[in-house]
Amino acid sequence: MTVIINGSSATLPGDPRVSLLDFLREHLHLSGTKKGCDQGACGACTVLVDGERILSCLALAVQFDGRQVTTIEGLSDDAGLHPLQQAFIEHDGFQCGYCTPGQICSAIGMAAEAKRGLPSHVSADLTAEVTLTREEMQERMSGNLCRCGAHNGIIDAIRETVVAGMAA
Amino acid sequence: MTPFSFTRATDPDEALRLFEGNASYLGGGTNLVDLMRETIARPERLVDVTALSDTIEETADGGLLIGAAVRNTALAEHLGVRTRYPVLARAILAGASAQIRNMATVGGNLLQRTRCLYFYDHAGSRCNKRAPGSGCDAVHGFNRNHAILGASPLCVATHPSDMCVALAALDATVHLTGAGGARTLPFTALHRLPGEHPEIDTVLEPGELITAIELPPLPFAANSTYRKVRDRASYAFALVSVAAALEIEGGQIRDVRIALGGVAHKPWRATTAEAALRGGPATEAAFRDAAITELADAKPLSDNGFKVELVTRTLAAVLSELAGAAA
Protein backbone atom coordinates (compact mmCIF):
# COMPACT_ATOMS: atom_id res chain seq x y z
CA MET A 1 0.00 0.00 0.00
CA THR A 2 1.50 3.29 -1.08
CA VAL A 3 0.63 6.94 -0.93
CA ILE A 4 2.13 9.79 -2.94
CA ILE A 5 3.48 12.53 -0.67
CA ASN A 6 4.56 15.71 -2.43
CA GLY A 7 5.16 13.72 -5.60
CA SER A 8 7.17 10.90 -3.98
CA SER A 9 5.86 7.42 -3.26
CA ALA A 10 5.83 6.22 0.36
CA THR A 11 4.83 2.86 1.84
CA LEU A 12 1.96 3.15 4.29
CA PRO A 13 2.52 1.94 7.86
CA GLY A 14 1.61 -1.60 8.87
CA ASP A 15 -0.01 -0.47 12.11
CA PRO A 16 -3.47 0.94 11.25
CA ARG A 17 -3.44 3.11 14.39
CA VAL A 18 -0.94 5.53 12.81
CA SER A 19 -2.62 8.80 11.86
CA LEU A 20 -1.72 10.49 8.61
CA LEU A 21 -0.25 13.27 10.76
CA ASP A 22 2.06 10.95 12.71
CA PHE A 23 2.97 9.15 9.50
CA LEU A 24 4.09 12.44 7.95
CA ARG A 25 5.94 13.73 11.00
CA GLU A 26 7.35 10.64 12.71
CA HIS A 27 7.80 8.17 9.84
CA LEU A 28 8.67 10.48 6.94
CA HIS A 29 10.17 13.30 9.06
CA LEU A 30 8.07 15.87 7.24
CA SER A 31 7.66 18.02 10.35
CA GLY A 32 6.15 21.02 8.56
CA THR A 33 2.66 19.72 9.25
CA LYS A 34 1.93 20.52 12.89
CA LYS A 35 0.21 18.67 15.71
CA GLY A 36 -1.86 21.16 17.69
CA CYS A 37 -4.86 19.68 19.45
CA ASP A 38 -4.74 16.20 17.85
CA GLN A 39 -8.53 16.11 18.07
CA GLY A 40 -9.79 18.04 15.07
CA ALA A 41 -10.34 21.40 16.75
CA CYS A 42 -7.45 23.62 15.62
CA GLY A 43 -6.58 22.95 11.97
CA ALA A 44 -2.79 23.03 12.46
CA CYS A 45 -2.51 19.58 10.83
CA THR A 46 -4.36 20.56 7.63
CA VAL A 47 -2.96 18.97 4.46
CA LEU A 48 -4.29 18.60 0.93
CA VAL A 49 -5.41 15.18 -0.32
CA ASP A 50 -6.07 15.12 -4.05
CA GLY A 51 -6.36 18.88 -3.73
CA GLU A 52 -8.91 18.88 -0.90
CA ARG A 53 -8.09 20.15 2.57
CA ILE A 54 -8.49 17.65 5.40
CA LEU A 55 -7.31 17.22 9.00
CA SER A 56 -4.44 14.72 9.08
CA CYS A 57 -4.82 14.16 12.85
CA LEU A 58 -8.25 12.55 12.39
CA ALA A 59 -7.16 10.55 9.35
CA LEU A 60 -5.83 7.00 9.64
CA ALA A 61 -2.91 6.74 7.21
CA VAL A 62 -4.07 3.33 5.95
CA GLN A 63 -7.18 4.94 4.47
CA PHE A 64 -5.05 6.87 1.96
CA ASP A 65 -3.78 4.08 -0.27
CA GLY A 66 -3.18 5.47 -3.76
CA ARG A 67 -3.99 9.07 -2.84
CA GLN A 68 -1.94 12.22 -3.48
CA VAL A 69 -1.02 14.17 -0.33
CA THR A 70 0.46 17.67 -0.43
CA THR A 71 2.02 19.17 2.68
CA ILE A 72 3.60 22.57 3.27
CA GLU A 73 6.93 21.06 2.15
CA GLY A 74 5.41 20.36 -1.25
CA LEU A 75 4.35 23.93 -1.94
CA SER A 76 7.76 25.53 -2.39
CA ASP A 77 10.58 24.41 -4.63
CA ASP A 78 14.13 25.42 -5.53
CA ALA A 79 12.72 28.49 -7.28
CA GLY A 80 11.49 29.86 -3.95
CA LEU A 81 8.46 30.16 -1.73
CA HIS A 82 4.87 29.68 -2.82
CA PRO A 83 3.30 33.13 -3.37
CA LEU A 84 1.03 32.57 -0.38
CA GLN A 85 4.02 31.83 1.86
CA GLN A 86 5.63 35.08 0.73
CA ALA A 87 2.38 36.97 1.35
CA PHE A 88 2.16 35.59 4.90
CA ILE A 89 5.61 37.12 5.56
CA GLU A 90 4.69 40.44 4.01
CA HIS A 91 1.36 40.74 5.86
CA ASP A 92 2.56 39.48 9.26
CA GLY A 93 0.27 36.47 8.91
CA PHE A 94 1.84 34.84 11.96
CA GLN A 95 3.80 35.37 15.13
CA CYS A 96 4.86 31.98 16.48
CA GLY A 97 4.21 30.29 13.14
CA TYR A 98 2.80 27.07 14.54
CA CYS A 99 -0.56 27.30 12.77
CA THR A 100 0.95 28.64 9.53
CA PRO A 101 1.45 25.43 7.51
CA GLY A 102 -2.15 24.45 8.22
CA GLN A 103 -3.40 27.94 7.41
CA ILE A 104 -1.60 27.96 4.07
CA CYS A 105 -2.70 24.47 3.01
CA SER A 106 -6.24 25.31 4.12
CA ALA A 107 -6.29 28.56 2.13
CA ILE A 108 -5.21 26.73 -1.03
CA GLY A 109 -7.99 24.20 -0.55
CA MET A 110 -10.44 27.02 0.15
CA ALA A 111 -9.53 28.79 -3.07
CA ALA A 112 -10.30 25.67 -5.09
CA GLU A 113 -13.64 25.23 -3.30
CA ALA A 114 -14.64 28.84 -3.99
CA LYS A 115 -13.56 28.60 -7.61
CA ARG A 116 -15.84 25.65 -8.26
CA GLY A 117 -18.76 27.49 -6.63
CA LEU A 118 -19.10 25.80 -3.23
CA PRO A 119 -21.19 28.13 -1.03
CA SER A 120 -20.48 28.72 2.67
CA HIS A 121 -22.52 29.29 5.80
CA VAL A 122 -22.50 33.06 5.17
CA SER A 123 -23.38 32.92 1.46
CA ALA A 124 -26.74 34.66 0.98
CA ASP A 125 -27.37 32.85 -2.30
CA LEU A 126 -26.49 29.16 -2.40
CA THR A 127 -26.17 29.07 -6.19
CA ALA A 128 -24.41 32.36 -6.97
CA GLU A 129 -20.83 32.58 -8.11
CA VAL A 130 -18.61 32.90 -5.03
CA THR A 131 -17.12 36.28 -4.21
CA LEU A 132 -14.48 35.91 -1.54
CA THR A 133 -15.33 38.86 0.66
CA ARG A 134 -13.59 39.22 4.00
CA GLU A 135 -16.63 37.71 5.72
CA GLU A 136 -16.60 34.74 3.32
CA MET A 137 -12.89 34.14 3.92
CA GLN A 138 -13.29 34.37 7.70
CA GLU A 139 -16.08 31.79 7.63
CA ARG A 140 -14.27 29.48 5.22
CA MET A 141 -11.06 29.63 7.29
CA SER A 142 -12.79 29.16 10.67
CA GLY A 143 -11.35 25.67 11.01
CA ASN A 144 -7.85 27.11 11.40
CA LEU A 145 -7.20 28.76 14.75
CA CYS A 146 -4.33 31.19 15.43
CA ARG A 147 -3.68 31.61 19.15
CA CYS A 148 -1.37 34.58 18.44
CA GLY A 149 -4.31 36.41 16.90
CA ALA A 150 -2.77 36.99 13.47
CA HIS A 151 -6.07 36.37 11.70
CA ASN A 152 -6.25 39.83 10.13
CA GLY A 153 -2.81 39.42 8.55
CA ILE A 154 -3.72 35.91 7.47
CA ILE A 155 -6.85 37.14 5.70
CA ASP A 156 -4.88 39.98 4.08
CA ALA A 157 -2.29 37.51 2.77
CA ILE A 158 -4.95 35.19 1.42
CA ARG A 159 -6.85 38.04 -0.18
CA GLU A 160 -3.77 39.37 -1.94
CA THR A 161 -2.64 35.99 -3.23
CA VAL A 162 -5.56 33.66 -3.60
CA VAL A 163 -8.27 36.10 -4.52
CA ALA A 164 -6.00 37.82 -7.01
CA GLY A 165 -5.15 34.41 -8.47
CA MET A 166 -8.82 33.62 -8.91
CA ALA A 167 -9.48 36.89 -10.64
CA ALA A 168 -6.55 36.43 -13.01
CA MET B 1 -5.49 3.68 20.91
CA THR B 2 -6.43 0.06 21.48
CA PRO B 3 -5.02 -2.20 18.71
CA PHE B 4 -7.43 -3.14 15.93
CA SER B 5 -7.41 -4.75 12.51
CA PHE B 6 -8.26 -2.74 9.40
CA THR B 7 -10.07 -3.94 6.31
CA ARG B 8 -11.65 -2.14 3.40
CA ALA B 9 -14.97 -3.20 1.90
CA THR B 10 -15.72 -2.69 -1.78
CA ASP B 11 -19.45 -3.39 -1.58
CA PRO B 12 -22.14 -3.69 1.13
CA ASP B 13 -22.12 -7.51 1.14
CA GLU B 14 -18.39 -7.56 1.73
CA ALA B 15 -18.80 -4.99 4.50
CA LEU B 16 -21.32 -7.24 6.25
CA ARG B 17 -19.00 -10.24 5.91
CA LEU B 18 -16.03 -8.33 7.30
CA PHE B 19 -18.02 -7.03 10.28
CA GLU B 20 -17.42 -9.60 13.03
CA GLY B 21 -17.61 -9.35 16.80
CA ASN B 22 -16.47 -6.08 18.33
CA ALA B 23 -16.23 -4.18 15.04
CA SER B 24 -17.06 -0.71 13.76
CA TYR B 25 -17.66 0.63 10.29
CA LEU B 26 -15.34 3.53 9.48
CA GLY B 27 -16.32 6.50 7.33
CA GLY B 28 -14.30 9.70 7.37
CA GLY B 29 -13.19 8.98 10.92
CA THR B 30 -13.74 12.53 12.14
CA ASN B 31 -15.58 11.33 15.25
CA LEU B 32 -14.64 7.65 15.54
CA VAL B 33 -10.86 8.16 15.33
CA ASP B 34 -11.10 10.79 18.05
CA LEU B 35 -13.20 8.48 20.26
CA MET B 36 -10.72 5.64 19.69
CA ARG B 37 -7.78 7.85 20.60
CA GLU B 38 -9.60 8.73 23.84
CA THR B 39 -10.26 4.96 24.32
CA ILE B 40 -13.99 5.71 24.59
CA ALA B 41 -14.50 3.55 21.49
CA ARG B 42 -12.43 0.37 21.45
CA PRO B 43 -13.35 -1.66 18.36
CA GLU B 44 -11.13 -4.64 17.56
CA ARG B 45 -11.90 -4.47 13.86
CA LEU B 46 -12.48 -1.49 11.61
CA VAL B 47 -14.26 -1.98 8.30
CA ASP B 48 -13.63 0.99 6.02
CA VAL B 49 -16.83 1.67 4.07
CA THR B 50 -15.74 4.83 2.27
CA ALA B 51 -15.45 2.89 -1.01
CA LEU B 52 -19.19 2.18 -0.96
CA SER B 53 -21.70 4.31 -2.85
CA ASP B 54 -20.74 7.97 -3.02
CA THR B 55 -23.23 8.93 -5.69
CA ILE B 56 -26.30 11.19 -5.50
CA GLU B 57 -28.99 9.92 -7.86
CA GLU B 58 -32.40 11.19 -8.92
CA THR B 59 -35.17 8.80 -7.87
CA ALA B 60 -38.11 7.88 -10.10
CA ASP B 61 -40.56 9.95 -8.03
CA GLY B 62 -38.44 13.10 -8.11
CA GLY B 63 -36.42 12.75 -4.91
CA LEU B 64 -32.74 12.07 -4.33
CA LEU B 65 -30.92 8.90 -3.27
CA ILE B 66 -27.71 9.80 -1.44
CA GLY B 67 -25.04 7.11 -1.02
CA ALA B 68 -23.83 6.69 2.56
CA ALA B 69 -20.22 7.39 1.54
CA VAL B 70 -21.02 10.78 0.01
CA ARG B 71 -18.87 13.38 1.74
CA ASN B 72 -20.66 16.19 3.55
CA THR B 73 -19.11 18.80 1.25
CA ALA B 74 -20.29 16.94 -1.85
CA LEU B 75 -23.84 16.79 -0.54
CA ALA B 76 -23.96 20.51 0.29
CA GLU B 77 -22.43 21.26 -3.12
CA HIS B 78 -24.92 19.21 -5.16
CA LEU B 79 -26.99 21.63 -7.22
CA GLY B 80 -30.22 19.70 -6.69
CA VAL B 81 -29.72 19.88 -2.92
CA ARG B 82 -28.94 23.60 -3.05
CA THR B 83 -32.02 24.43 -5.10
CA ARG B 84 -34.62 21.85 -4.00
CA TYR B 85 -33.55 21.22 -0.38
CA PRO B 86 -31.64 24.35 0.69
CA VAL B 87 -32.28 23.53 4.36
CA LEU B 88 -30.00 20.50 3.93
CA ALA B 89 -27.19 22.42 2.23
CA ARG B 90 -27.40 25.15 4.89
CA ALA B 91 -27.41 22.67 7.76
CA ILE B 92 -24.30 20.94 6.45
CA LEU B 93 -22.50 24.24 5.83
CA ALA B 94 -23.34 25.34 9.39
CA GLY B 95 -21.60 22.28 10.83
CA ALA B 96 -17.96 21.56 11.70
CA SER B 97 -15.20 23.11 9.56
CA ALA B 98 -14.45 22.86 5.84
CA GLN B 99 -11.71 20.28 6.49
CA ILE B 100 -14.04 18.07 8.51
CA ARG B 101 -16.87 18.40 5.97
CA ASN B 102 -14.43 17.25 3.27
CA MET B 103 -13.70 14.08 5.26
CA ALA B 104 -17.02 13.24 6.92
CA THR B 105 -19.47 10.88 5.22
CA VAL B 106 -23.25 11.03 5.29
CA GLY B 107 -23.50 7.64 7.02
CA GLY B 108 -20.92 8.63 9.61
CA ASN B 109 -22.66 11.92 10.31
CA LEU B 110 -25.77 9.98 11.31
CA LEU B 111 -23.83 7.78 13.70
CA GLN B 112 -21.67 10.37 15.44
CA ARG B 113 -21.79 10.36 19.23
CA THR B 114 -22.80 13.16 21.56
CA ARG B 115 -20.25 15.84 22.42
CA CYS B 116 -21.40 15.93 26.08
CA LEU B 117 -18.19 16.77 27.97
CA TYR B 118 -18.95 14.18 30.64
CA PHE B 119 -19.18 11.51 27.94
CA TYR B 120 -15.69 12.49 26.77
CA ASP B 121 -14.19 12.85 30.26
CA HIS B 122 -13.51 9.15 30.76
CA ALA B 123 -10.92 9.78 33.46
CA GLY B 124 -13.00 11.96 35.74
CA SER B 125 -16.74 11.75 35.12
CA ARG B 126 -19.61 9.34 35.39
CA CYS B 127 -21.57 8.77 32.21
CA ASN B 128 -24.29 6.20 31.54
CA LYS B 129 -23.76 6.51 27.83
CA ARG B 130 -20.06 5.67 28.05
CA ALA B 131 -20.25 3.25 31.02
CA PRO B 132 -23.85 2.01 31.53
CA GLY B 133 -24.94 2.13 35.15
CA SER B 134 -22.15 4.44 36.28
CA GLY B 135 -24.37 7.51 36.69
CA CYS B 136 -24.72 10.87 34.95
CA ASP B 137 -22.67 13.85 36.09
CA ALA B 138 -24.40 16.17 33.62
CA VAL B 139 -27.87 16.07 35.23
CA HIS B 140 -26.66 18.15 38.18
CA GLY B 141 -23.47 19.39 36.55
CA PHE B 142 -22.58 21.91 33.86
CA ASN B 143 -25.55 21.26 31.59
CA ARG B 144 -25.91 24.46 29.60
CA ASN B 145 -25.60 22.55 26.30
CA HIS B 146 -27.90 19.70 27.26
CA ALA B 147 -31.40 18.47 26.45
CA ILE B 148 -34.71 20.08 27.35
CA LEU B 149 -36.92 17.55 25.57
CA GLY B 150 -37.17 13.76 25.77
CA ALA B 151 -34.32 13.25 28.25
CA SER B 152 -34.26 10.63 31.00
CA PRO B 153 -32.82 10.76 34.52
CA LEU B 154 -30.00 8.60 33.15
CA CYS B 155 -28.93 10.87 30.28
CA VAL B 156 -29.48 14.47 29.21
CA ALA B 157 -27.08 14.47 26.24
CA THR B 158 -27.97 16.03 22.89
CA HIS B 159 -27.37 14.76 19.38
CA PRO B 160 -24.66 16.96 17.84
CA SER B 161 -25.45 16.80 14.10
CA ASP B 162 -26.76 19.73 12.08
CA MET B 163 -27.31 17.68 8.92
CA CYS B 164 -29.58 15.26 10.80
CA VAL B 165 -31.89 18.09 11.87
CA ALA B 166 -32.51 18.94 8.22
CA LEU B 167 -33.03 15.26 7.33
CA ALA B 168 -35.60 14.96 10.13
CA ALA B 169 -37.52 17.93 8.73
CA LEU B 170 -37.42 16.59 5.16
CA ASP B 171 -39.11 13.22 5.84
CA ALA B 172 -35.96 11.40 4.73
CA THR B 173 -35.70 7.62 4.69
CA VAL B 174 -32.66 5.58 5.75
CA HIS B 175 -31.68 2.57 3.63
CA LEU B 176 -30.07 -0.24 5.62
CA THR B 177 -28.64 -3.65 4.96
CA GLY B 178 -27.84 -6.32 7.52
CA ALA B 179 -27.87 -10.02 8.34
CA GLY B 180 -31.66 -10.03 7.97
CA GLY B 181 -31.54 -8.39 4.54
CA ALA B 182 -32.26 -4.87 3.38
CA ARG B 183 -34.83 -2.58 5.00
CA THR B 184 -35.75 1.09 5.17
CA LEU B 185 -36.60 3.26 8.14
CA PRO B 186 -38.11 6.72 8.43
CA PHE B 187 -35.18 8.95 9.35
CA THR B 188 -36.99 10.11 12.49
CA ALA B 189 -37.14 6.48 13.70
CA LEU B 190 -33.36 5.91 13.40
CA HIS B 191 -32.24 7.68 16.57
CA ARG B 192 -33.56 6.79 20.03
CA LEU B 193 -34.42 8.78 23.11
CA PRO B 194 -32.18 7.73 26.01
CA GLY B 195 -34.78 6.05 28.26
CA GLU B 196 -33.22 3.22 30.25
CA HIS B 197 -30.45 2.65 27.71
CA PRO B 198 -28.62 5.87 26.86
CA GLU B 199 -25.64 3.81 25.66
CA ILE B 200 -27.68 2.88 22.56
CA ASP B 201 -28.04 5.82 20.15
CA THR B 202 -29.96 4.19 17.30
CA VAL B 203 -32.26 1.27 16.47
CA LEU B 204 -29.65 -0.33 14.18
CA GLU B 205 -28.99 -4.04 14.72
CA PRO B 206 -25.37 -5.05 15.42
CA GLY B 207 -23.49 -4.97 12.13
CA GLU B 208 -26.33 -3.31 10.26
CA LEU B 209 -25.01 -0.88 7.66
CA ILE B 210 -26.45 2.40 6.41
CA THR B 211 -26.23 2.30 2.62
CA ALA B 212 -28.13 5.44 1.59
CA ILE B 213 -30.43 8.27 2.58
CA GLU B 214 -33.46 8.98 0.42
CA LEU B 215 -35.08 12.38 0.18
CA PRO B 216 -38.69 12.31 -1.00
CA PRO B 217 -39.88 14.92 -3.49
CA LEU B 218 -41.05 17.90 -1.44
CA PRO B 219 -41.53 20.83 -3.81
CA PHE B 220 -42.15 23.41 -1.10
CA ALA B 221 -38.78 22.52 0.47
CA ALA B 222 -37.35 24.93 -2.11
CA ASN B 223 -38.54 27.46 0.49
CA SER B 224 -36.59 26.07 3.44
CA THR B 225 -33.68 27.08 5.60
CA TYR B 226 -31.62 26.26 8.67
CA ARG B 227 -30.65 28.58 11.48
CA LYS B 228 -28.09 27.66 14.11
CA VAL B 229 -27.51 29.59 17.31
CA ARG B 230 -24.13 29.02 18.94
CA ASP B 231 -21.60 30.65 21.25
CA ARG B 232 -19.33 31.79 18.39
CA ALA B 233 -20.08 32.70 14.80
CA SER B 234 -18.52 29.61 13.25
CA TYR B 235 -17.15 26.16 14.03
CA ALA B 236 -19.14 25.43 17.18
CA PHE B 237 -21.92 23.03 18.08
CA ALA B 238 -25.46 24.36 18.29
CA LEU B 239 -27.03 25.66 21.45
CA VAL B 240 -30.26 25.32 19.50
CA SER B 241 -31.02 25.09 15.80
CA VAL B 242 -34.11 25.12 13.61
CA ALA B 243 -34.65 23.44 10.23
CA ALA B 244 -37.88 24.45 8.52
CA ALA B 245 -39.73 24.43 5.21
CA LEU B 246 -42.86 26.50 4.66
CA GLU B 247 -45.63 26.63 2.06
CA ILE B 248 -48.05 29.53 2.11
CA GLU B 249 -51.20 30.00 0.05
CA GLY B 250 -53.31 33.16 0.37
CA GLY B 251 -51.71 34.14 3.65
CA GLN B 252 -52.50 30.74 5.20
CA ILE B 253 -49.99 28.02 5.98
CA ARG B 254 -50.65 25.19 3.55
CA ASP B 255 -47.85 22.95 4.79
CA VAL B 256 -44.82 23.14 7.05
CA ARG B 257 -41.90 20.99 8.23
CA ILE B 258 -39.95 21.78 11.38
CA ALA B 259 -37.14 20.03 13.23
CA LEU B 260 -35.09 21.25 16.18
CA GLY B 261 -31.43 20.60 17.03
CA GLY B 262 -29.56 20.98 20.31
CA VAL B 263 -32.63 20.19 22.39
CA ALA B 264 -32.79 16.39 22.62
CA HIS B 265 -31.00 13.04 22.38
CA LYS B 266 -32.14 12.90 18.76
CA PRO B 267 -33.03 15.43 16.06
CA TRP B 268 -36.44 16.64 17.25
CA ARG B 269 -39.18 16.66 14.64
CA ALA B 270 -41.64 19.30 15.86
CA THR B 271 -44.89 17.58 14.83
CA THR B 272 -46.94 19.38 17.49
CA ALA B 273 -45.90 22.78 16.18
CA GLU B 274 -46.51 21.66 12.59
CA ALA B 275 -50.05 20.52 13.42
CA ALA B 276 -50.76 23.78 15.24
CA LEU B 277 -49.63 25.81 12.24
CA ARG B 278 -51.14 23.90 9.32
CA GLY B 279 -54.13 25.76 7.88
CA GLY B 280 -53.59 28.76 10.15
CA PRO B 281 -52.28 32.28 9.58
CA ALA B 282 -48.62 32.89 8.75
CA THR B 283 -48.00 35.45 11.47
CA GLU B 284 -45.18 35.83 13.92
CA ALA B 285 -47.62 35.41 16.80
CA ALA B 286 -48.78 32.09 15.36
CA PHE B 287 -45.17 30.96 14.93
CA ARG B 288 -44.38 31.82 18.55
CA ASP B 289 -47.51 30.11 19.83
CA ALA B 290 -46.65 26.96 17.85
CA ALA B 291 -43.16 26.91 19.37
CA ILE B 292 -44.60 27.32 22.87
CA THR B 293 -47.01 24.44 22.23
CA GLU B 294 -44.15 22.24 21.01
CA LEU B 295 -42.14 23.04 24.14
CA ALA B 296 -45.02 22.49 26.60
CA ASP B 297 -43.30 19.37 27.94
CA ALA B 298 -39.82 20.88 28.04
CA LYS B 299 -37.91 20.13 31.24
CA PRO B 300 -34.98 22.51 31.46
CA LEU B 301 -32.03 21.66 33.69
CA SER B 302 -30.21 24.03 36.05
CA ASP B 303 -28.22 25.79 33.31
CA ASN B 304 -30.25 25.52 30.11
CA GLY B 305 -33.60 27.18 30.81
CA PHE B 306 -32.65 29.81 28.23
CA LYS B 307 -33.15 27.22 25.48
CA VAL B 308 -36.96 27.38 25.80
CA GLU B 309 -37.11 31.06 24.87
CA LEU B 310 -34.22 30.70 22.42
CA VAL B 311 -36.02 27.96 20.47
CA THR B 312 -39.23 30.00 20.52
CA ARG B 313 -37.53 33.10 19.14
CA THR B 314 -35.41 31.20 16.62
CA LEU B 315 -38.36 29.22 15.28
CA ALA B 316 -40.46 32.39 14.97
CA ALA B 317 -37.61 34.17 13.20
CA VAL B 318 -36.99 31.30 10.76
CA LEU B 319 -40.66 30.91 9.85
CA SER B 320 -41.06 34.68 9.49
CA GLU B 321 -38.10 34.69 7.11
CA LEU B 322 -39.61 31.85 5.09
CA ALA B 323 -43.04 33.51 5.11
CA GLY B 324 -41.44 36.67 3.75
CA ALA B 325 -39.69 34.73 1.02
CA ALA B 326 -42.92 32.94 0.07
CA ALA B 327 -45.05 36.09 0.02
Question: Layout of helices and strands, plus pairs?
Answer:
The complex is a heterodimer of chains A (168) and B (327).
Chain A lengths: L1 E4 L2 E4 L8 H8 L18 E4 L2 E4 L12 E3 L12 H8 L9 H16 L18 H7 L10 H17 L1
Parallel strand pairs in A: 1-5
Antiparallel strand pairs in A: 1-2, 3-4, 3-5
Helix pairs in contact in A: 2-5, 3-5
Chain B lengths: L4 E4 L3 H7 L4 E4 L5 H6 L7 E4 L7 E3 L5 E4 L4 H6 L1 H6 L1 H8 L4 H6 L2 H5 L6 H4 L42 H7 L3 E6 L2 E6 L22 E7 L8 E6 L10 E10 L2 E10 L6 E2 L1 H7 L6 H11 L11 H21 L1
Parallel strand pairs in B: 1-3, 2-3
Antiparallel strand pairs in B: 4-5, 5-8, 6-7, 6-8, 9-10, 10-11, 11-12
Examine the coordinates and then state which fold CATH places here, giving the name of the CATH topology of the largest domain in chain A: DNA polymerase, domain 1
Secondary-structure arrangement, i.e. CATH architecture of the largest domain in chain A: Orthogonal Bundle
- Rg result of chain A: 16 Å
Indicate the radius of gyration of chain B in whole angstroms: 19 Å
CATH level-4 homologous superfamily of the domain at 223-326 in chain B: CO dehydrogenase flavoprotein, C-terminal domain
**Biggest beta sheet attributes of chain B:** 5 strands, antiparallel
Q: Please give the count of helices of chain A.
A: 5
As for the number of domains of chain A, it is 2
State the helicity of chain A in percent bands: 25-40%
Pfam families (chain B): CO_deh_flav_C, FAD_binding_5
Keywords (chain B): FAD, Flavoprotein
GO molecular function, one term (chain B): oxidoreductase activity
Protein name (chain B): Xanthine dehydrogenase family protein subunit M
